[in-house]
Amino acid sequence: MTRPLHLVAVSGGLQRPSKSAALADHLLDLVADQLPCEQRLVELGQLAPQLAGAVWRSHLPETVERELAAVEQADVLVVTTPVFRGSYTGLFKHFFDFIHQDALIDKPILLAATGGSERHALVIDHQLRPLFSFFQARTLPLGVYATDKDFADYRLQDAALIERARLAVHRAMPLIEMARQSATADAEEAVAA
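and the corresponding C-alpha cells:
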C-alpha cells in the first residue's frame, strides 16, 4: 500500500502575508498535483518569538519542536527564503541550526527564494545549496527565484516564473518519486516487523 508523500515547506518569510510563503504554497500545490501528499507549511515568521534567544534545542517550546520534527521526518522539503543582505534570513539559518545534522541525508529539497530584484538570484546556488550540502541532502536540479514584480496580491502572476516553477517540479519528480517509494517501503517494513 502506497502512503501519501510527507511534503513539508519551510518559509523564511518574517511577516504574514509573505511572498516566500506564497511561493512555497505554489510549489507545494505543484507537487501535490503530481502525487498524493500530506502538505505542511512551516512559517518561521510565526515562530520567531519562540526561537528568539534559544541556543539549545532542549530549550525550545513544544510548538517549535513539532515543526523541527516535521522537517526532519518529511519525505521531501521545499525551502523558501527572502533574500536579506545577500543571503537567507538569520531566522532561517537559526531554525536549520536546530535540525539534526543527519536528519536530511538524501532528502530531496526544492530550493526557492524571493528578493527585491534579479541581482539576488544567485542566492540559491551561492547560499542555499551549500547549506543543504552540509546536511548531505539532495538539492533538486532547478531552483526558483522570484522578485517582487512577479507577484500580485501575494500570488504568482509572471508567466515565465510560473513556467519555471512548473519545470522545477517536473524535473524533480523522478527524485521525489524515489523518495515516495522509499518511504512506502520503510512503512511496509515497519508494519511487517
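(Above: one complete record from the training split.) The mean pLDDT is 92.
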